[in-house]
Specification:
Blueprint (H helix, E strand, L loop, with lengths): L1 H8 L5 H22 L14 E3 L4 E4 L6 H11 L4 H5 L3 H6 L7 H9 L2 E6 L2 H14 L4 H14 L9 H15 L12 H4 L9 E4 L3 H11 L19 H9 L4 H17 L5 H4 L7
Helix pairs in contact: 9-13
Length: 286
């Protein structure tokens, strides 16, 4: 895994040619892992979240908490929605008014004749982002209720606020109860379930960790120059990733971490991520 991490890091030193090569490596890696893991356990493409812009011959599967705001903004702008409509409606709900869900056969045909891409993120960083943005911020009424319900499940007589440990245990319990990861909320459901990447055809895999460089090359490859507005709609986190790793993952036990990793293990493997740093963080005893 060290050689993979180094390969990702040095990409910025060699410009567009290297970015193109590393995308080929990411796609090849995805194919190899999919073959080894029997297509991530899926037999059918999941089309529920894919967006297909026929005008720009572009297919995108949004991985929630992995740079979706910019791309929902662009797809909805291309659809003719106003700034007010975009800012005051659920992104996916608004997009579906113009981009209907395509059935599996149609979606595969769309991918074959369009430029298709996905944006991914380190699975545990995505969890941290989901926890902070959905359950801690209290800026969304629905997730405020979810946050309170999770807290009360583990602290029935308490009056505090949800902790990351509560969140992790909730995910573990939810998966054990359902005997599946399919029912998890879209903001922390594994990418393997949301986009069934082993059954899709992608031209480009963008990683949030190298987002700016990847997007620049992808826009050229997809011939989208001058058509994409890159913007930051969400609150920019002030604390470095390393600080957040220690802050949250030191709250959970070794057993919880092992169970959490097993839930997202396929995502780690599909996109070449490592959890080594997280396992090295001192854990809670009980």
């Amino acid at each position: 895994m060290i050689c993979v991490v180094n390969y990702e890091l040095i990409r910025t030193e060699f410009g567009e040619k290297f970015a193109t090569d590393i995308n080929k490596w990411r796609l090849s890696h995805l194919t190899n892992v999919c073959q080894r893991l029997n297509n991530g356990g899926h037999t059918n493409l999941q089309p529920a979240f894919y967006l297909h812009s026929k005008n720009y011959s572009l297919v995108y599967c949004p991985v929630f908490k992995a740079g979706t705001s910019t791309w929902f903004y662009n797809f909805n702008t291309w659809a003719g929605f106003t700034e007010y409509e975009i800012m005051h409606n659920d992104n996916l709900f608004l997009a579906r008014k113009f981009y209907p869900i395509e059935n599996r056969v149609t979606l595969m045909q769309s991918m074959a004749h369009s430029f298709s891409f996905i944006i991914v993120r380190h699975p545990f960083e995505r969890l941290i982002s989901a926890f902070e943005d959905r359950l801690v911020s209290m800026k969304n009424a629905y997730y405020s209720r979810v946050s309170l319900a999770i807290y009360r499940r583990y602290h029935p007589t308490g009056s505090g606020k949800i902790t990351f440990r509560d969140f992790v245990q909730y995910i573990i319990d939810d998966v054990e109860y359902r005997n599946s990861t399919m029912g998890l909320d879209i903001h922390w459901c594994p990418v393997n379930n949301i986009c069934t990447p082993c059954l899709a055809r992608y031209d480009y895999i963008i990683k949030l960790e190298t987002y700016e460089q990847d997007v620049e090359v992808m826009i050229k490859a997809a011939k989208l120059q001058g058509k994409v507005k890159l913007m930051q709609l969400n609150h920019v986190r002030k604390e470095p990733v390393e600080v957040l790793m220690m802050k949250y993952f030191s709250q959970i036990t070794q057993k919880q971490l092992e169970m959490l990793y097993s839930i997202y293990e396929i995502d780690f493997e599909l996109f070449g991520y490592s959890a080594d740093k997280y396992f090295q963080i001192p854990k809670a005893v009980t």
